[in-house]
Amino acid sequence: MPFQIVASIFMIITLYIYNGYETNDPDKATLDKARKLKDVAISFFYISRFFFGFAAGMCCVVSTSYLNEISPRALRGTVGSCHQLAIVIGILLGQIIGLPWILGRHNTWNWGMAWVGLLPLIGSVLIWTLPESPRWLVQEQRQNEAAQSLRKLRQSNDIEAELIEIQNEETALTRKDLGILKVLSSSEFRWPLITSLVLNAIQQLSGIDAIFFYSADMFSLAGLRDEKVLWGILATGIINLIATLIALKLIELLGRRPLIIWPLAIIIVIMIGLTIFIVLNAKNPEEKKEALAIVSIVFILIFIVLFAIGLGPIPYVYSNEVFPVEARAAGLSLAMFINWFCKFLIATFFLPLQSAIEGYVFLLFCLFVALAFTLLFFKMPETKNKRLQEIQTFWK
Questions:
Q1: CA 372, 308, 85: angle at the middle one, nearest 5?
Q2: What DSSP character marks residue 216?
Q3: What's the CA gap between 311 and 30, in Å, rounded?
Q4: How far apart are CA 226 and CA 38, in angstroms?
Q5: Torsion over CA of 70, 202, 210 and 351, rounded to 10 degrees?
Q6: From the CA atom positions of the chain, what is the Rg in Å?
Q7: Where are the CATH 1.20.1250.20 domain residues in the chain?
Q8: pTM for the full model?
Q9: Structure confidence by residue, pLDDT tens digits, 56-76
Q10: What is d(CA 313, CA 84) in angstroms, rounded to the nearest whole number?
């Protein structure tokens, strides 16, 4: 939270300076001042972006762990998926604010970023109303506070059985937190770590960020033009939100494994089909492009639905469920590092790859998905409503 507050301050300063830079005065001195202000604004923008990125990475680890620790076992998947739901809502809000008729113009984009700075400031106040994790309090031998926190979370005084269960689980585990090197070198954590890393990697290497980062380019590649591209971008956000809401129910109804394995299998087919239709679109005359574009867009939207019900929420939930408490911080840190590193790779190399091989770029995503499907099919256990000891027996 401190990093988000610092980032917010830099963002607000950036907006203030940028507004000073905007001018219609042709006076040379004024223009020179405006250029200097622009350079300063850009510097502050990059600094704020650094702090926001740092804070986002930390929040991905801490918030998912917190949600896992405060949720009842029967709702662990649903509550844990709320992290992804918040991300999806943020994506949709960003898409709406970025529309040209709202704040997505050259002279209003800076105000569109103001909400990015305001939300952490609001969150820094609201966070003090949250109860502490009962599991963490038990680890710290603060039993009375753990009971109070559990009563607040469950809105009930009947918490003795659950508190005893938490105490028994914590007693059975070692007390000392393990570092990253220990988790990497221990055979006990080999498969929990490998499956978590693969899930977090394929969440990005499936191509989902390519769709949301460069959706305008992708819809243009699929054949859409002008204002239709904007509506296509908005449709991706709306469908992503609806499918994520459905996933909140499915994750406890069907479990984690089916929502990963079968959507991955279908995504392989979708990627192959999408490649075929985009390549055909590029080679066919104009009169045939519209029909091919529609099919391509349908494939993209189906892919988003499949992603939202599986690869969207489950990597965060699963990564919290397969590590014991003493290895969870290190395991989650490694998983989030891989997640964000793969996000960086997509953001950096997608456009050059698209320029080089055009529609065939989806075959690369297809290869990544196929490799992940093969490994997870054989090595990913079901974690729904299971204790850690039950999950670990899968790999023994």
A1: 125
A2: H
A3: 52
A4: 30
A5: 140
A6: 23
A7: 179-396
A8: 0.80
A9: 777 777 888 888 888 887 888
A10: 5
